[in-house]
Amino acid sequence: MSKSLLFIPGPVTVAEPVLTATAQPMIDHRGPEFKALLERVARRMKPIFGTERAEVLLLGSSGTGGLEAAVANMFGAGDRILACPIGVFGERLIAIARTFGCDVDVLETAWGSGVDPQALRAKLESAAGERRYAGILLTHNETSTGSQNDLASLAAAIRGCGAYVVVDSVSGLAASDFRMDEWGFDIVVTASQKALAVPPGLAMVAVAPRAWERMDSNRAPRYYFDLKKARDFAALGQTPWTPPVSIVYGLDAALDEFERTGPRRVWERHARYARAIRACAEALGLEIFSAEGAHSVTVVAIRVPAGIDADAIRKRLRDDRGVVIGGGQGKLKGQIIRIGTMGDLSQTDVLGALGALEIALLDAGVSLHIGSGVQAALRVFLETEAPAAV
Ligand code: PLP
Questions:
Q1: With left for phi above 0 and alpha for psi between -120 and 50, is residue 112 left, alpha or beta?
Q2: Which residues does this entry mark as bearing N6-(pyridoxal phosphate)lysine (predicted)?
Q3: For a pocket test of ligand 1, which of 64, 187, 225, 342 has the largest count of ligand atoms closer than 8 A to its C-beta?
């Protein structure tokens, strides 16, 4: 099998110790070893969510299952929900809420930007009495546009409105600081195959105390994704249904590495890689899709010049150089390329992928000074020192 460099924004390259951990012999998922494993992993996920109060549950599903669980347990038919999409995954949250009968109102934001806190505040203030929102749906990091919301500002805008806040941090959590308790979020969802760099198969859902109260009174139907059932089983060191045991082993090993490196250095690595990729694109005369102040640290979306097919560039990169990057989704199909920063990637991997990108762009007819992009990325790496572990 030839080596390929995975630069899509999930699933990502998984480090050797994590892969090895997933290959351990199977154990009884209702036995003492799994109980210790589950409890250890849930405890170690809490600081990553920035919570002491919330319970962290592991669901055998991808991130979308975690999002469905959040919506289905918190809301039901007729509940008025404010959705704040900034791309394809925000739209998926709307689709989930509508599937469960919610009355979804949408705060529109131009793709590539983050939600404007003042616009959010104004929207909440305009909804009074019967028209008050029961819930707010936010995306932390929008993988389809390479943009990231300033959650601290949005949390400040929401504070006091009473609505329950569900946050999709599938492609954000563990790559930057996250403060669930401080920001007052009720449910936060992430998944194994993104910044935690574990194979796909697990959604991790952090549920704040206030959310449990809401679930007690919510009569909307749920079965597989019944979070109260998941909590009851978690208290016994189990999951209601057969869990992906191997992936939980992998997560445990990934958390070893996360803790050894220290959160600050992990966050800084993602930010540095994203900066280097953006610097490369800009040096090549390409436009970054995300707006200034809203750049994601886990994925960089780059517009390809008019007349150039982004998907053809991706194919050349994959076929000729073994470099796998993402393309545009939804209305951005063919217009952008997306380069992820997550996973077990070295600076050398990043520089190699960017060099391959330059060649593919040149072959596609983009006029550029060959080497100028890699040089700009290299400069970012040389100029930014890794901070000490915390
Ligand atoms: N939300 C965001 C922001 C994502 O990036 C993704 C996947 O890329 C999802 C939700 C859906 O996650 P999954 O593909 O694990 O179901």
A1: left
A2: 194
A3: 64
